[in-house]
Amino acid sequence: xxxxxxxxxDGTLLSEGGTISAVNIKAIxxxxxxxxxxxxxxxxxxxxTQSILENAGIDCPIITGNGAITFHGKEIVxxxxxxxNVTLELIPxxxxxxxYFELYTNQGIHLLNxxxxxxxxxxRILAEKxxxxxxxxxxxxxxxxxxxxxxHYINDYKDIHIAELGVYKIFVLSFDRAKLQRLENTLGxxxxxxxxxxxSTKLEIAHAEVSxxxxxxxxxxxxxxxxxxxxxxxxxxxxxxxFNVAGISIAMGNAVEExxxxxxxxxxxxDEDGVAYALRNFVIEN
Length: 286
Known about the structure:
The chain has two domains: 4-80 and 210-283, Rossmann fold (3-Layer(aba) Sandwich); 84-207, Hypothetical Protein, Haloacid Dehalogenase-like Hydrolase, Chain: A, domain 2 (2-Layer Sandwich), CATH 3.30.1240. Helices cover 40% and strands 22% of the residues. It has twelve helices and 14 strands. The longest helix has 15 residues, at 115-129.
């Protein structure tokens, strides 16, 4: 019976440098040759994910924006955007609180020219306040944001037309965890958005019905593959929803405890070709 295997990117399939290793690429190709369907299921933008896969020579359906966009056969088959009025309300609120954020749109990722400077200032203040704060780790996390494909720098969010762009995710990054927690608490009571995270410094806002689990369910139905024949591989909180619906769930060796607790199996770490190990030991063999 054909399987559908959903694989996360960051902390799962991608190396430290944001590429896919030759070992993982070969394992994916072997699974595809066997007749199973691979889908990438990531919080990243569609443009960014497409570029990463193109560079790796992998052709497969894509779920991006934590499930906001489902892409199959060279076209978007489902897209759930944040209502324009919600986006227009959240932008000035996030700006007033001094948050660095990005808008994921149908034209790529929009962010402010002063974004890096804004993060640098936050890192500097936190490093001065706390001797245990890792400057090196923070600057590395910061740099990952500016290595994405499809970035559009703007001077002011007022300069863009939200209605034309179709915003499907607002990504917030902050190294001030208390501040980020306050934002999550404030937004957590709303029913017009969904909130998830792919790391302790990140908050990801989307349409109320967006989740990787909902998107995996949609993709399985779209391809006529029973959910019991689906596999989910991931490492973080935004992967939990797909772990909850997949027939088999596989947590990375570096995964958060919440993911390991509910997974069927645990594989090796992302920097030990854990996806290839999972595919060969828990998918191809079954």
